[in-house]
Amino acid sequence: MPTKTTWIRIIAVLLALPLAALVSGQTKTAKKVAARAKYPVVAMETTAGTIKIEVFTDKAPVTAKNFLEYVNSGFYTGTIFHRIVPDFVVQGGGYLVDMTPKLTKPGIKNESKNGLKNLRGTLSMARHADANSATSQFFINLKDNPHLDPLPGGWGYAVFAKVVEGMEVVDKIAKVKTATRSIRGTAFDNVPLQAIAVKSATVLP
User: Which helix (H) or strand (E) holds 61?
Assistant: First the structure.
């Protein structure tokens, strides 16, 4: 038969277990809050699902500021992922459903030499041949794409964010069938036959 002292010890242990679980849960929550405080997180709701994007304001300050300004202005609402290349990238941020281009701000400084790599799930700025021509368009890497990183003496594609939730949504978008379309006399390759549109993009509190 357990003694009175033994019962007291058992009860103390049982009471301590839920307290330890509570403290552990609070610690995990605090870590998530601290991470969010360090980097802004954008929730991009699309017709295929929601993608949450962590923006690296320290490593790519110019690019991050540019992206967040487009987000906060509502620019991305109604835009589509207009280019899908399986096992490579999905690209969006510049065209409406009818492939009308949106007016953008001037191009920004290329920050591809910030040490961030074009790994699966990262976001980089799309641009023209001019290294400093990126405006609003971005792409999400579907796999590690080291050839998009800068070479010695050259420029690459600037990584500025990464998907922290919803990569399965990105993979679903990547499976949409595509075709070459002639839009106002210009041929566009890899255009999805099913429009995947951005319903909203907001910075989480």
Answer: helix 61-72
| Cα–Cα–Cα angle for 131, 74, 69, rounded to 5 degrees | 45
Q: State the pTM of this model.
A: 0.82
d(CA 198, CA 191): 16
Strand partners, 83: 91
Return the closest-CA partner of residue 148 out of 126, 133, 166: 126
Task: Encode pLDDT of 110-122 as tens digits.
Answer: 999 999 999 999 9
Chain mean position to CA 53 = 3
Distance CA 47, CA 178 (A): 17
Residues 6+ apart with CB under 8 A from 165: 50, 51, 52
Over the stretch 100-153, which tens digit does the pLDDT of each residue have?
999 999 999 999 999 999 999 999 999 999 999 999 999 999 999 999 999 998
Please compute Rg for the chain using Cα positions.
23
